[in-house]
Amino acid sequence: MRCLVTGAAGFIGSHLCDSLLQAGHAVVGIDAFIPYYPRPVKEGNLLGLWAHHKFVFHELDLRTAPLEPLLDGIDVVFHLAAMPGLPRSWSDFDLYESCNVTATQRLVEAAVRQRQLHRFIYASTSSVYGRYASGDESLPTRPISPYGVTKLAAEHLCRAFCEEKGLPLVVLRYFSVYGPRQRPDMAYHRFIRALLAGAPIVVHGDGQQVRGNTYVGDCVAATMAAMQALPGEIYNVGGGEAVTIQEVLHKLQLLTGRRAAIRHEPARPGDQRATSADTSKLRRHLGWRPRVGLDEGLARQLSWQRGEEVRLAA
Ligand SMILES: NC(=O)c1ccc[n+]([C@@H]2O[C@H](COP(=O)([O-])OP(=O)(O)OC[C@H]3O[C@@H](n4cnc5c(N)ncnc54)[C@H](O)[C@@H]3O)[C@@H](O)[C@H]2O)c1
Q: Which domain holds residue 25?
């Protein structure tokens, strides 16, 4: 297949490009390097891809670039480009609206004109469910952050184009993805960075909030499996090991052999209390199973972050 991956320089998108190429697909990656976190980190994500003869990369912004030529000859679109992260979405709504909604609208407009498109896979989020995101895909969608609202708006846009214009859509709702290349603003990345630096760890809330963690390799496997899903389907993608933030901190202290000074700050508006995906539909329809447990996944992220500190300091 010839695949287009948006957000290819990001955390999950870069892993998806790696795996698609390994499976023999041709990949066109695009990214605008939105400076939400530093460009050199994203350039590092792409390092292993440049040399691959089936990989082409375009630096472009989905909000403004002509998109029809990009879709020419593409079989599958994986739309991962977005402004992620809850806290900033309260103060920079224009950026979230334009990157998550307008960019998606422009992409689906172009995609429905590409008549041979086999699938359009949209990376959504557990944030569309709201404060409590534990259950299957029939949970009500009541986002409690502007981020969640824009991701749900984009989901609805994709659905409208699916039902009325034939977009071969599959929606995936990812639950707390972690592992090597995790974004620097995400909690486990911040915790590991603080442990390695001997700095205090800031925990928002009481630490009893539950997260259904998904190892990035399992998330990518589900995303690739979605190429076989029927158009119109929605799937939760979650690793199945739900633990509290307190428990993750305990695991990370054991792994690093360091004790952290933990400073609690109030929970932030939009923070979810519990997320835990019921993935039975994904297992039943596509035979997907999570393969990497939390201890192993955290050890892999720690090892990557150690290497990354050396690379970025050089
Ligand atoms: N990481 C998670 O735990 C998680 C959980 C749920 C959903 N998601 C979704 O998965 C997707 C990938 O998330 P991630 O954690 O890899 O984020 P990321 O920020 O690492 O990657 C997203 C990439 O999209 C690019 N981008 C944003 N706007 C763009 C635009 N207008 N044009 C071109 N490129 C643009 C950014 O530069 C960035 O490199 C997002 O859609 C996010 O909402 C992630």
A: 2-175+214-238+276-291
